[in-house]
């Protein structure tokens, strides 16, 4: 999904996060040594500096390399006691290229003062702190990452409307990492109408942090080619960046910035309820969520996150061939019927109760009481992504359901926004 918006300013730095030092022994010397049939001398102690958000991932990386963690110490303690933080930093810069995860680390830390209170619906600060280590702006417009297109596959079926592509990019040559719900920027080649280099466009990421191949080497996008009639000339106009992306061929290079965004992140709670409402390419982050929750390969590499809650996707499209990722969605529905509910709103094929076209807001109205019952649960997070016009209809439907219990929806919505349980990204 593409949307307009300002790129976040300050990058996330180690100084703003909790950082730990792993002392590791037994790391292999190189990939080539794995192929030998005779004993290889193990390395001595290596000190690896690891941000809080990467602890679980780094542990798995160390295990894959045959290493064993001898100790884990906060950097602050080392700085105060034995001054090893500097040498640990150099070791981390050489070895630590792990993907971040939003899971609790395997070591128990004493809670900070502001974390000792009970988690209530309106405790927004606790939610914000939980995402303090999410990567932001690793690559900026003045120094983008140069990725390569691996594949560019059509998502719209025969007789569908428009062009939508699923693009997968190789990011193995750099340090680009991200989590579900974030976006990356794409800088198209060429000059704009003013003769200046084209500016970046932001697109929601459609893959999990591990990528479609679950190897931490790719990032994927869901892109619709923008096409419209010029209001004065009647000429067909095509979006610059979307057309560029939809026409990429495997091997083509692309300038990538980011990642950005913390508004659409999934809660770490494995028992959460996740309501998703999407139109068109707004399905992109929802696909990432669903893969993280339900795909076998993802669950295998995420032992710290095994979703056990309930998720519900309400997906609005114009025609059946425009149901993006249809086979994936229905496979998950068939495999996890107790944990995933799938509802379509197909505007040009289905009718609402008034005889008009069935839009996503009509489906929300149809299930408003069920949705309201879920939303009241403090474990429920709601995500809305897609065309901005659907928000008013969703609010109207939920207002009616809440009013049956004497609740003002507008006020209640403000509370759950403050609590970090209402997430919106529309364009």
TrEMBL record:
Example of a GO cellular component annotation carried by this entry: phycobilisome
Catalytic activity: 2 reduced [2Fe-2S]-[ferredoxin] + NADP(+) + H(+) = 2 oxidized [2Fe-2S]-[ferredoxin] + NADPH
SUPFAM superfamilies in the record: Ferredoxin reductase-like, C-terminal NADP-linked domain (SSF52343), Riboflavin synthase domain-like (SSF63380)
Domain FAD-binding FR-type: 142-266
Membrane topology, record value: Peripheral membrane protein
Subcellular location: Cellular thylakoid membrane
GO molecular function term, any single one: ferredoxin-NADP+ reductase activity
Composition skew (Polar residues), residue ranges: 107-123
Keywords for this protein: Antenna complex, FAD, Flavoprotein, Membrane, NADP, Oxidoreductase, Phycobilisome, Thylakoid
Binding-site residues for NADP(+), renumbered to this chain: 204, 224, 281, 317-318, 347-348, 386-387, 425
Annotated region described as Disordered, given as residue ranges: 81-130
Chief site of localization: membrane
PROSITE patterns: CPCD_LIKE, FAD_FR
Cofactors: FAD
Family: Belongs to the ferredoxin--NADP reductase type 1 family.
Name of the protein in its database record: Ferredoxin--NADP reductase
Naturally occurring in which organism (per UniProt): Fischerella thermalis JSC-11
Lineage per the UniProt record: Bacteria, Bacillati, Cyanobacteriota, Cyanophyceae, Nostocales
């Amino acid at each position: 999904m593409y949307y307009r918006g300002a790129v976040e300013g300050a990058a996330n730095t180690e100084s703003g996060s909790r950082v730990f030092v792993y002392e590791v022994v037994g790391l292999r010397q190189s990939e080539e040594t794995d192929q030998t049939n005779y004993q290889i001398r193990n390395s001595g102690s290596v000190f690896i500096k690891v941000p809080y958000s990467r602890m679980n991932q780094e542990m798995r990386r160390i295990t894959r390399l045959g290493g064993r963690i001898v100790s884990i110490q906060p950097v602050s303690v080392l700085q105060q006691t034995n001054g090893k933080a500097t040498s640990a930093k150099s070791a981390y810069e050489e070895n630590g290229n792990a993907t971040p995860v939003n899971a609790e680390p395997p070591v128990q830390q004493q809670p900070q003062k502001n974390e000792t209170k009970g988690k209530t619906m309106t405790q927004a600060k606790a939610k914000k702190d939980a995402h303090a280590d999410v990567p932001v702006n690793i690559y900026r417009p003045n120094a983008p990452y140069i990725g390569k297109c691996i594949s560019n596959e059509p998502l719209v079926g025969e007789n569908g409307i428009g062009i939508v592509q699923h693009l997968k990019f190789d990011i193995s040559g750099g340090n680009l990492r991200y989590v579900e719900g974030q976006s990356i920027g794409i800088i198209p080649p060429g000059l704009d109408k003013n003769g200046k280099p084209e500016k970046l466009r932001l697109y929601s990421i459609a893959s999990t942090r591990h990528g479609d191949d679950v190897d931490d080497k790719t990032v994927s996008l869901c892109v619709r080619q923008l096409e419209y009639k010029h209001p004065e000339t009647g000429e067909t106009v095509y979006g610059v960046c979307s057309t560029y992306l939809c026409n990429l061929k495997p091997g083509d290079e692309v300038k990538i910035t980011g990642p950005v965004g913390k508004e659409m992140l999934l809660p770490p709670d494995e028992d959460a309820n996740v309501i998703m409402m999407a139109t068109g390419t707004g399905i992109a982050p929802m696909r990432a969520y669903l893969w993280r929750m339900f795909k076998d390969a993802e669950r295998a590499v995420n032992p710290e996150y095994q979703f056990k809650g309930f998720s519900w996707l309400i997906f609005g499209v114009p025609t059946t061939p425009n149901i993006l990722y249809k086979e994936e969605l229905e496979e998950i529905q068939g495999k996890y019927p107790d944990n995933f509910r799938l509802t379509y709103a197909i505007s040009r094929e289905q009718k609402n109760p008034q005889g008009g076209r069935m839009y996503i807001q009509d489906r929300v109205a149809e299930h408003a009481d069920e949705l309201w019952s879920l939303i009241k649960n403090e474990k429920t997070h709601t995500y809305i992504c897609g065309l901005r016009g659907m928000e008013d209809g969703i609010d109207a439907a939920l207002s009616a359901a809440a009013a049956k219990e004497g609740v003002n929806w507008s006020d209640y919505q403000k509370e759950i926004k403050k609590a970090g349980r209402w997430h919106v990204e529309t364009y």
